[in-house]
Design goal:
This protein has 437 residues and is α+β, with helices and mostly antiparallel strands. The chain has 6 helices and 17 strands. A hairpin with a 4-residue loop joins strand 15 (391-393) and strand 16 (398-400). The longest helix has 76 residues, at 210-285. It is elongated.
């Protein structure tokens, strides 16, 4: 056994004392480095802030409710609840006998007006017949009545013409007589002037009597009066003839003007009836109710043949299938302050296991302007989210998503560092310290 000297014992103790602080310092340094590393990581590492809600998948354009404007009686039903329908596919047929009756009355009225139109056109042309090519689709009774009226009117005008023609003929005869009387008066006056010129010297010589000379003078005065009367009568008779000719033209113009005015009014009536007929035909075409969209029949309000349909009544509700889908999610009022359109969202369809099939990415498109109330009185805000696709899984093997499915929605409202989460309780305690309620 080796004896330990005091010097060796002192050196051993000094070595052990010196080695202990070195290990402690290394441990402290290691802990410091780890804490510093954690602080740096916690300060720069970001975690998502989300707002979570529950919602439902709906079509973007809502369900299509098919109605009928006029109503009527159901005669045929082509689809049932749950059937798939295409755009324009017949759903049911409705009849309204009032339309057919009104259209028949309108057709009769239009036929009557068209017949009158043909008659008025003939009157304006001055004809007493209607061409056969214009009588198509017009009943013989109506045509016979209008032809009879046309002949009566034309006969009346012809009679007026004949009366005026007789008066004109009479006036022309008077004019001819006046001309003849004037011509005879001129000839007679020439003869009398010669006789007077020959007799006057003989009277001065006493060969002829004064009485004969005065008789000749008297005859000349009478003939001169006849000549003047004839000259005055001619313009008066000619003016009367012109007046009768003008009256004759006025009768024609007045008759045609009346016919033209009546024709214009008739044309307006025919146009109005035609528009009404088009509306009636459109109503009759609407007796076949068709689907406005491709989709699935959700609900039928009419299931009985001969059932009565009220105007504007809901008939069929269709869920569109080709429409894009929208998520309507309910969010707590305390979370809505951090939501705005354009935020991204993760949509989890409860019908599919999220861990296996994943979820859908979406975008917030709308937030209700005011809070709504649940049946139990709890308030909520309605947030509408548009998914980026309408199926889960791969495009070649899509998993169908249909309206009505329930979803869980996580909306990304921001990011926070781990340090913010760690310090939040401290800041909260600091703000609430030394206070009481």
């Amino acid at each position: 056994m080796t004896d330990k000297t005091p010097e060796s014992i002192l050196e051993a103790n000094f070595a052990s004392v010196t080695e202990a602080p070195v290990k402690s310092r290394l441990l402290i340094y290691l802990i410091f480095i780890m804490v510093l590393t954690f602080i740096i990581w916690a300060n720069y590492s970001q975690l998502d802030e989300i707002t979570r809600g529950i919602g439902k998948i709906i079509p973007s354009s809502k369900n299509q409710v098919v109605q009928h404007l006029e109503g009527g009686i159901v005669t045929e039903i082509f689809v049932r609840q749950g059937d798939s329908v295409e755009v324009g596919q017949p759903l049911l047929r409705i009849e309204n006998m009032m339309w057919a009756s009104t259209l028949a009355e309108s057709n009769l009225r239009k036929e009557e007006l068209l017949t009158r139109q043909l008659r008025l056109n003939a009157e304006i042309r001055g004809e007493n017949f209607i061409e056969c090519t214009e009588t198509e689709n017009i009943s013989p009774e109506l045509m016979e009545r209008e032809i009879s009226l046309l002949k009566t009117n034309m006969a009346y005008i012809e009679n007026q013409y004949n009366i005026i023609e007789q008066q004109i003929t009479q006036r022309k005869g008077e004019l001819a007589e006046a001309k003849i009387r004037g011509e005879n008066a001129v000839k007679t006056l020439e003869i009398l002037n010669k006789q007077i010129d020959m007799t006057k010297p003989l009277v001065e010589k006493g060969v002829e009597s004064q009485t004969d000379f005065l008789r000749l003078e008297r005859d000349r005065v009478n003939v001169t009066d006849q000549l003047e009367t004839s000259k005055v009568a001619k313009p008066r008779i000619e003016a009367a003839i012109k007046e009768l000719e003008s009256k004759k033209n006025e009768i024609k113009i007045s008759f045609q003007g009346r016919a033209q005015k009546e024709l214009n009014e008739l044309t307006v009536q025919i146009s109005q009836i035609t528009e009404r007929q088009n509306a009636l035909k459109d109503q009759m075409q609407r007796t076949l109710v068709v689907s406005p969209v491709k989709g699935t029949v959700k609900q039928m309000s009419v299931n009985t043949i001969n059932g009565v349909i009220r105007p504007g009544m809901d008939l069929v509700e269709i869920v569109p299938s080709d429409d894009s889908l929208i998520i309507e999610a309910k969010m707590r009022p305390s979370d809505v302050a951090f939501l705005h359109p354009g935020q991204t969202a993760k949509i989890k369809v409860t019908a599919y296991d999220f861990s296996i099939y994943g979820g859908l990415d979406g975008e917030v498109i709308d937030i209700s302007a005011d809070s709504l109330m649940e049946p139990n009185g709890m308030p909520y805000f309605l947030v509408r989210i548009r998914p980026l696709k309408n199926y889960l899984g791969k495009e070649d093997k899509p998993l169908k998503i249909t309206p009505g499915m329930i979803v869980s929605v996580d909306i990304l409202t921001g990011k926070k560092s781990v340090m913010d989460y760690l310090l939040k309780p401290i800041f909260k305690a600091k703000n609430q310290a030394l206070t009481e309620r």
